[in-house]
Amino acid sequence: MVLQIKNPFMRYVLSKAVVYAVLWFLAVFLNFLLPRIMPGDPIRRFIERVYAMGQAPSGGTAQIIPEFEKYMKEVERLFGLNQPPSLQFPSWFLNFIRGDWGFSISYLNLPPVKDLVMQALPYTLALLLPSLVVSWIIGNYLGAYLALKGGKADKVGLSVLQFIAQLPTYWLLIILLFIFYVKLRWVPPIGRPTYMIPSLSWDYIRELLRCMALPLTTLTIVGIGGWSIGMRAYVIYQLNSDYIKYAKSLGLPQRVLGRYAFRNALIPQFTAFAINFGGMFAGNLLVEMIYGYPGMGALLATVMANLDVFAMQAIFTFTATMLLLANFAADIIYGFLDPRIRRGVAEVIS
Amino acid sequence: MVEDYIIRTENLKLYYVLPRGIYVKAVDGVSIEVPRGGVIGLVGESGSGKTTLGEGILYLIEPPMVKVGGKIYYRFHGNEEIDVESIPQDKLEKMRGTDIALIPQYAMNALNPTMKIGSFIKDVAKYHDRDPDEVLKVAIERFKMLGLPEDVVNRYPHELSGGMRQRAVVVISTLLNPRLVVADEPVSNLDVVHQQVVIDFLTDLVKRGIVETMTIITHDLPLILEKSRYLIIMYGGHVVETGKREEIWSEPLHPYTKLFLESIPPVGTRIEEKRIRGIPGNPPDLRFPPPGCRFHPRCPFTMDICRREEPPEIEVAPGRKVKCWLYADLKKR
Amino acid sequence: MKSGLDSSTLFKNLRGLKDTLVGELFMNRRFVVGFTIFLGLVLLGYVGSLFAYPDPWDISIYTGTTICTPEYRFLPPSPGHPLGTDQGCRDIYTWLVVGLKNSLWIAAVAAIISTTIASTLGLIAGYRGGILDDIINFVSNFLMVIPMFIVLLMLVSYVPPEARTSLLVAVMIGLTSWPGPTRVVRSMVMQHRAADYVDVAKLMNFSITEIIFKEILPNIASYIFLIYINAFSGAIFAEVGIGAIGYGPWDAVTLGRTFNNIIYGGLVFVGAWWSFVTVGLVIVLLSYSLLLINLGLQHVFNPRLKLTYYAV
Lengths: 350, 333, 312
Known about the structure:
Number of helices of chain B: 11
Radius of gyration of chain B: 21 Å
Shape of chain B: globular
Strand content of chain B: 15-25%
Largest interface: A-C, 52 and 41 residues
Strand content of chain C: under 5%
Order of helices and strands of chain C: HHHHHHHHHHHH
Strand order of the largest sheet of chain B: 7-8-9-4-10-11-13-12
Radius of gyration of chain C: 23 Å
Oligomer: heterotrimer
Order of helices and strands of chain B: EEEEHEEHEHHHEHEHEEHHHEEH
């Protein structure tokens, strides 16, 4: 069926879609499988904990709190405990795509996992998206500049950037925390506007920005290191290409050649950007945890500490889904930007 | 010395630097003059250094190629020689495409894959202060002359076949009517029909006075034997013989030239009738060239001195040079 | 052509080759600097441990009791405690050097595991081709899309703390980092498979295992070493990463755990900069030195990359 479609770009999109659909299915299945095959049977322990929570101590004999019935039912339903093993995955799968992710035991009020995720997600995106975009843009220009400049500046610049790029983000965060909080008191010690109820009020947002300053700076600095090294490599590769040599032989000046190389080097950088975009949804665990920033990373850390299986499954699966989606989008964008794929090598007139 | 020349090299040495300090001596002490006007053939087998020399005279020297020694002089306008290295960068850029141009050996990959061909042409025009649309019109005309469809300018390079791209590059390089064109293997990748078309196009440009001098680099001697008026023959990084086409054809001096000419079957030769002699052996590894004359391992006339000392360049007549010990006594006279 | 007909000749050639390669490595500035720093850190870990207190958890040696009292907490550097003490009266220097030693060990083991898996799978996939190749390729491509750090975290988080031994952590790190190297090995093997000496060996009726191990392997041995170094550096990053958030091994003190302890023990807020700056510095130097070693190795083994200067 794929072969019957004429437009080369649509063929590309469709074939990629098929591949990613398969990958996604595999990812979801693996996520389902994991807690069920790990040693120590996390699922049983989880269920035991839930039952334990639902028991009210009353003079020696344990009784089930009536309101807890519905939680029990949910556990049964979502884990498919009263279903044959072969049906457990399909039922879980269906529940997952319907958005029915169960409840979390990490918090006293046993909130729905979905709510937790939807609450944490905006924080993560608010932190990681600007950092990604800013470091990508700056990194591109910096990398291209070094590649075009060459010579001593390039050598020194490269070494500096290499050092910056491999810095552990959590370490840089701590150093900056020490300088800007312990010594200067410019930023709050915890990355969460404490004592404030989340809202879209200007007060809250301003406080949130103060909280975001540190992790944002950390991630952006390390990010610039990484992106510029990559871009520099791509630009150098382009500058050594035949088409640049030819354009130079026709007398096109440096700045034009630089423009050509920059544009062509940007294509793989775009792909990398999209992939990183997908990675955003996992949050940056270390940074969020250490600073206490209430994003996906911190959420994940909390639920892992409590062995909160519902939440863990949902978050892992959600993250994997976003990742694959982002990769898929990356492939599509790349295919669109590169005229070789967009137009296909289909009809060649000769 | 050629009477009227446009480029002169003096003991030019162009090496490629490889890792671990090894040099490929592609052009190892070449002193030639490129005569003004007409079709000049720069001939040699693979690995003779002809491409490097071609790039060298256009001063397109980039890493890993380095100029280890020698000089290059331009004499385009008037009778004054200018050392190429003394020309300021921006002036040199302006000369490229208008005075000097290259049709590269890598023509099939010479076009920017993410640019439409028309856009590239417009850029070239713009940076030489020409009207982009006018230049584009001329380009389309010339594309048609080479058998390319009009809409080539709206296409990306990968949408054309290799042969089409090569022809497109031929047009683009000559678009601004440069005085000197160096065409490096312009037709090797084309089918026989288009080979003729392109060669005719190039020689036509010279005939009509649009291009003053056309230097064609090739390993295919018969191809330019007819059309050229002057030949420069290279072997193993050295120029072994130069001269007018008729002179070389009728009286080749260097053993290599002799063997080379003998290896060309005349038209109409039948396989059963004549045995074609090739030249036994292999071209030298330019990282470690043989001592003495570079051709001596394959030369049927090798003498003892050929194995030891590099032969001198002997100018038998103005513009007629040979680098061979067989003619050394002529020098003494 | 004296290709791999005689394996002993090959090994002789290899040794000769090693002489020039090793010599050249030490001429490479990045490699030398990285190697020196790394060596220094290894010494710090192993020799430094000799000077540390025997048990990182045992505070009675200097306090006289197992209860932590305020006068021994958050101590600044002193002769008995070069890096002071933490919130639990524990000696930070001991935690640093013992942690360093253990982290190096874990990384070494993890790297062995992932390199072995990658080499085996890569050799099979590259040499055999066919459906085996497709499967291995598909799986490794799939796994590369997912950040292995998350997967590692998943694996580690489902394991109860008591079961999290150093060995287990090393194994898990090894198991989550093989996809990338596998692809590299595979492409190298595919290149060599097409080489002449393999055909000659086939003609001489060498069995497949013989060809793989006696002919191809020695040729790519130097690259496998490079892969090992890469894996080692990745393993350090992984261990410190999961350790820093508390999911490192439970049975031993590692660098990640030390860092975690420092952060969650509040030493930053107390202003005990000597603790996290030094520990942090060790971590940074460790990863940076490995990066330099890596770059140096690449430079020497991949000369094509050398000629990437271009001044327009």
